[in-house]
Amino acid sequence: MATATQNAPAQTGTPQYDAVVIGAGVAGLYQTYRLNEAGFTVKAFEAGSNVGGTWYWNRYPGARFDSEAEIYQYWFSKDMYAQWKPTERFPAQPETEKWLNHVADLHDLRKHYTFSTRVTVAHYDEANKLWTISTDKGETVTARFFISCAGMLSAPLENRFPGQDTFKGRIFYTARWPKDEIDWTGKTVGVVGTGATGIQVIQTIAPKVGKLKAFVRTPQYIIPMNNPKYSEADWNKKVEGFEDLKKRVQSTFSGFEYDFANGSWHDKTPAERRAIYEHYWKDGSLALWLSAFPEVFTDEAASADISEFVREKMRERLNNDPYLCEKLIPKPSDYGFGTHRVPLESKYLEAYLRPNVEIVDCRESAIERVLPNGVQMKDGTVHEVDILVLATGFDAGSGALSRIDVRGRGGRSLKEDWGRDIRTAMGVGVHGYPNLFTTGVPLAPSAALCNMTTCLQQQVDWISDCMIRLRDKGVTEIEATKAFEDAWVQHHDETANATLIVKTDSWYMGSNVEGKPRRLLSYCGGVGTYRGKCDEVAAKDYEGFAMS
Ligand code: NA7
Fold first, then answer.
1. pTM score, whole prediction
2. Nearest-CA neighbor of 228 among 390, 457, 70, 462?
3. Rg of the chain's alpha carbons, rounded to an integer?
4. Where does ligand 1 bind, in terms of residues with CB under 6 Å?
């Protein structure tokens, strides 16, 4: 591959850059770092005014990750790992945003970026084997490779309710949270959505607002977060374990430190199972979900058993109040524990014991529209609110790229292709779109079911190593073959269909977006297994990918 000529005029046949990268989140920053280190020319665009990705946009009250700080990490520099010194096990958004800013500074990554700029168009030029990429600021550049690190949860579902523009108060999307302080005092606040995001908002603002109206549609199974503070000495100990932990997270089912380690659910007595559940419940992490028993994901009896355990814990915390239990605890007929994202929470359920918190049951009557003074339900009831918080989710996995006019061979449109059927080649490319590399898109663990930093770094490393190999070989075009993509989709579906996840409606299945083709977004064969498959393709000189 010829080295791109930076700033050469577009459309000459020689691209201006080796790669254009979208995004300055966890994946984008690392991708830019890797390509720069490898001597490629990179142009990166970021819609936000600064780095951070998820941690730039989602600055809502209570935002924090559910991965332990010691594993929500980059693994390419032990020195850098040692520097962050997280203050708690599950740090909140400001700390993570600060850390990503530090990473950008440390490696001088900002110089590659144009901020506050959204990529709107990316067209593949078959004759010249390059991408022509345009932005909402009118800039157009060309690059051999187009790499999306645009995020798997970065396309919020906006304007879900008619009349939003008539609302007299402020409407906040959690994924577009403003930087100014909000004065909640004495205000009546409506929060729509009780996914991982809505839960964090509700538990955080309940003590601050005059009145909180939580619009609840699907109740959640939850796990209480155990979030001890980390001292400097605690962190230094973690740093000593850096190499082991780095290896460990790459091989587990979910990219977390923990893995299934209790054998089969079927081989345990009810008392033994209970002891295991209790152990993980006390641990206060996602381990109950992601490491108790594999059968939790596949076996109706195991699912029913652990679901009942969690329901029992939730009933206790709600003081067995019949009304609250009815409204806030999933029923056995709803769905099983862990068949969609399980949130960690801190006194979320207790928020509903407060006199200033009211439940609006959206299953009894759905939200009809937003009025200037509140929210009107289908049955005509109006809930007056001063502020409306919308934690209503994302067009996950495929949304960020589908919102860009991406065109591959013969002008085919990714939006239209994915509008019919969401397919990728191992989540790192798409047949029909040569020289497009993807992270965080469907059919890889990084689309949902994993510790994001583990999965995104693995994909970035695979892409970067692939580009180095192409350069060494003098290859200027790579594209997943149809046969390879077909085989991957089939393997993905077989793996997905063996789980209970496919039976539950949620963003994991794309069912939160009207008209989105139904398919489990995340590859759920395991993070370690996925890595092995990616490595095998690379070891066979990118078998399944056509090069020229
Ligand atoms: P989610 O998990 O998609 O949650 C969205 C929530 O919004 C969920 O409770 C929805 O209820 C609710 N929702 C959406 N539309 C409506 C309407 N029309 N009426 C009432 N309620 C509605 O998004 P999050 O941002 O919480 O989490 C996404 C991921 O980000 C999370 O899993 C973490 O990995 C980080 P529904 O369940 O559809 O009944």
1. 0.97
2. 70
3. 23
4. 153, 160, 192-198, 215, 217-218, 341, 362, 367, 391-394, 507, 512
